[in-house]
Amino acid sequence: xxxxxxxxxxxxxxxxxxxxxxxxxxxxxxxxxxxxxxxxxxxxxxxxxxxxxxxxxxxxxxxxxxxxxxxxxxxxxxxxxxxxxxxxxxxxxxxxxxxxxxxxxxxxxxxxxxxxxxxxxxxxxxxxxxxxxxxxxxxxxxxxxxxxxxxxxxxxxxxxxxxxxxxxxxxxxxxxxxxxxxxxxxxxxxxxxxxxxxxxxxxxxxxxxxxxxxxxxxxxxxxxxxxxxxxxxxxxxxxxxxxxxxxxxxxxxxxxxxxxxxxxxxxxxxxxxxxxxxxxxxxxxxxxxxxxxxxxxxxxxxxxxxxxxxxxxxxxxxxxxxxxxxxxxxxxxxxxxxxxxxxxxxxxxxxxxxxxxxxxxxxxxxxxxxxxxxxxxxxxxxxxxxxxxxxxxxxx
Length: 396
Known about the structure:
Layout: H1 4-9, H2 15-30, E1 36-37, H3 49-61, H4 64-68, H5 77-91, E2 100-103, H6 105-116, E3 123-127, H7 134-139, E4 144-148, H8 159-165, E5 170-176, H9 188-205, E6 210-214, E7 237-242, E8 255-259, H10 266-280, H11 287-295, H12 304-319, E9 332-333, H13 342-350, E10 354-355, E11 357-358, E12 368-371, H14 376-394
Parallel strand pairs: 1-10, 3-4, 3-5, 5-6, 6-7
Antiparallel strand pairs: 2-8, 7-8, 9-12, 11-12
């Protein structure tokens, strides 16, 4: 008999993927240039030429077994050492290779981190709006995800609501900054306050509370925005990163978990993640990608395009009367819909070939997400469709 659990999950597919699939089907009918698809967070700027050149150089000059053979379960030691050195220099940390575990993107990093610091029955807290897949990363470990309602004024942490959710079963806090879907960046003051609360609660409950920081958008920060490195402010922290967005290589699936050297059992967590992998069928990202990225650390794609796109959309939304918090990073914006039912709102937008994602699955009904990792020329054309949609459906 097949698994009933996974069979039932087929009826609750990702809304993001569903909207993206609709857009792909519509593009076959009228041409992709006429579909304004803001559904999927797929980086739109080119991969840096230096990365492509490095890949070619490696493929032409290195031993094939070095590039294509299995690496150690925790990742290639020399790669992990380079990553540790880079993080120490950039953020003033004290990582060694033993603190890093290589993963298939940030998704793999968060999934491993959640298993490393929880047991069945434990609780993990996150803050709305949040990435919907957190439900699966956490709940399929046997732990339970608890969601703190959103502070929709600025999408920072609602500490009063957080305090009501914290309890002795809380073993981890899962944050995402810069945030998908809101684009909000938690300020240094917010992280310091969160760290102080967790330090106090660790003493009160008599056990560790880990802070899992999901950071795939860490390098997409807009001008003048305060964007602290979370692990500097709290000892029991695990940093989960992906190169998908910074290098525009989401299909290469490379990320890592970095255990704060000051956290409990910091020297064991990477090795524990390797044991976790045995149970979920993960055994390292491709060796060639580990090696290539290690050779270009600090390099990013031209991420400035995303801020340009954000300003175009933000200004248009404001002019049309939307309530919207201006993003501080990422390539997402999360306005309030013009009616309570954001699903109905997004469905109406589809009549104008605008593909938006309702905020319900992000824990924020009544809002919608736009992923503006789209060519700027197309973003500009999409604003005419947005204005036509709003004026026809809501200003008649």
